[in-house]
Amino acid sequence: MDIKRFLKRLITVSRHPVVCVKLYFNGSRNFVIGKAKKISGIRYLSIGNKTQILNGCRIVSHDNYYGGKYSPRIKICNNVYIAYNCSILAAAPIIIEDNTLIASNVLITSENHGMDPEYGESYGITPLISKKVIIGEGCWIGEKAIILPGVELGKRCIVAAGAVVTKSFPAYSLVGGVPAKVIKKYNFDNHLWESVDEKEI
Predict the structure, then answer these.
(1) Residue 70, φ and ψ in degrees, nearest 5
(2) Of 14-23, 49-58, 171-180, which range is least confident?
(3) pTM score
(4) Residues assigned a catalytic role
(5) Are strands 128-130 and 111-113 parallel, antiparallel or unpaired?
(6) What is the number of H-type helices and E-type strands within the chain?
């Protein structure tokens, strides 16, 4: 291990001693976390080897929200890079697989407020809608993208900056827009990204 990484790990422990101890007992090793805005629900969090999370992150799990019971889990696997000011919010499992690159200001959430207009009170205290999210191995999530509940991205997908991903996409897709649609898919025969009709996927 190089000296620079060793020093970053020491700084992580000094900034987040309780988090680091709990993550250690969850099996997490050799990770770096910058100055976080908020980390809560640590018992539901695991972080893999050589993963880096930069300053400003917000990592929150809810197992109870205004009386509703939920089953959160945040699993960030090996060699994941999460840039500045990202939010990961879970009331259902979120799995970010190995070698994923996440740019700054990204939101990944497996929860949303309920949308029943007859509830009679603020949407802020309605029961949560929670659905599992999976970010496949080697994905690249662009700046300010939003990944919403129920989404599964296949291996090595690319999500364009500013995209709002509301549904799942297969491996080797390049997606963008609001809501996100497939823009291109990688063709292994000619080794190129090719435009596709989403209906063909």
Answers:
(1) -135, 165
(2) 14-23
(3) 0.92
(4) 113
(5) antiparallel
(6) 2, 24
